[in-house]
Amino acid sequence: MRYISTRDAKARVSASTAIVRGLSTDGGLFVPEVLPRLPEGAIGELRQMSYRQRAVYIMKLFLDEFTAGELDGFTRRAYGPESFDTPETAPLRALDANTSLLELWHGPTCAFKDMALQMLPHLLTASMGKTGSDKDVCILTATSGDTGKAALEGFADVERTKIMVIYPRDGVSDIQKLQMTTQRGGNVNVLAVRGNFDDAQTAVKEIFSDPGLREELAGRGWALSSANSINWGRLLPQIVYYISAYCDLLNAGEIREGEEVLFSVPTGNFGDILAGYYAKKMGLPVKRLLCASNENDVLTDFIKTGVYDRNRPFHTTISPSMDILVSSNLERLLFDLSGQSDTETAGYMEALRETGRYQVSGKIRAGIDVLFSAGRCDDAETLDVIRRAYREHGRLIDPHTAVALGVLEKFRRETGDKTPAVVVSTASPYKFCDSVLRALGETPESSGVELIGRLEEVSGVPAPAPLRALAGKPVRFTASRDKEELTQAVREFLG
Ligand SMILES: *Cc1c(COP(=O)(O)O)cnc(C)c1O
What we know:
Elements: E1 2-5, E2 8-14, H1 15-21, E3 30-32, H2 42-47, H3 51-60, H4 68-79, E4 92-96, E5 99-103, H5 113-117, H6 120-131, E6 136-142, H7 146-155, E7 161-168, H8 174-181, E8 188-193, H9 197-208, H10 211-219, E9 222-225, H11 232-251, E10 261-266, H12 271-281, E11 286-293, H13 298-305, E12 307-309, H14 330-337, H15 342-355, E13 357-359, H16 362-371, E14 372-376, H17 379-393, H18 399-415, E15 421-425, H19 433-439, H20 450-459, H21 465-468, E16 480-481, H22 486-493
Parallel strand pairs: 5-15, 6-7, 6-9, 7-8, 8-16, 10-11, 10-15, 11-14
Antiparallel strand pairs: 1-2, 1-3, 4-5, 12-13
The chain binds pyridoxal-5'-phosphate (PLP).
Residues 111-113, 146, 229, 266-272, 321-322, 400, 426-427 line the site of pyridoxal-5'-phosphate.
């Protein structure tokens, strides 16, 4: 199978090349030239399989250069008992009669980024072998919290790689910071930048676009790469859990084969929900995808009006992984719904860069209307959803998951729709103890890891082991730098 760029559909590359490059040289994102369909009878077969077997089956449809044996090895290492605390990997839990939670946070960092970032290093190093790339890879990532830690865990001690994560000194939660600064591994580095997330992000982008530095590092045997969600190797593992959730609903007797379901997805960069779109296009019976936003509702407005406009205030919310104004993966949806028009897609992205705004064609709007609905939940509503999920159903959920559940509730109220629904649950509530305790009526007096025990007491739900273990771990990384010093820090790290 060949992959093409959203900004130049004539440039065809193999899957391994797409994964090694991450981003196409024209600035576009790689997508499969033709999306594979689930073969006749596939769901019947997949129902009988474990999560890891389902992952091999589905990923194989996209990666014909890889053998099933290779993919089996990757899934064993990515989703095995050393990293996931349940053999189900992505368990489906009932919330009420026709609503389930798809828990994607049973990996080492307790957020859904693990589903992809536990797999990406294996796909990347194998792809480096297949493309004959002679350089080792240095992953450089700016993070506002969850991505950095998940990337560190994924790449720690992976051969032929090093990873450096840069976080804003004053911009991540106490628990997120401790998760990163206690990271194990001989090939990792974590650095605080004095500034906010934008400063960290801008500094990293400058390093990536510095041809002199690239050349210097290449001369020393290093290629720079990023772990963010534009890489096809991060998107592909996410398609698996939509199909797996459908199989689990069937196995639980909640639906009949062929019956349609809804997914409600807490959305930031549009990666997670885009994987759901691809699952639908492969033939999964999905009635609708609900795109759920917090107060940063640029996507809600886009799905309702066809106008994407990032010229609006940025809000800091209690669901920080969705505090995003530019959703990079939306480009892949526009490309697909335009009938794979690279010039049209490039035009929208150009308008976004120049004016911060674009309006899509009637054709794209129609494509969005038949499959997507959207809604938003502000912080007060989110806290209320967390409180009710716990009081009425005994389920402790994090603020991101609560946004998706709140949007589903609104959708049902407005439309009377009773389709069985899956709420995609993207983080452990223990990553956000402060907000969850407040939702349950507490007034937290301490912060960080000290609240983990308190939330256990109040809720009676045990915290995930990796978070409970944080309190006793030595801090390995304490350095902070000014953003002007980051290039030098990268040089030093690569020796
Ligand atoms: C990253 C993240 C999201 C948003 O996912 P996208 O793929 O960026 O849309 C939602 N919830 C949590 C907890 C996350 O870490």
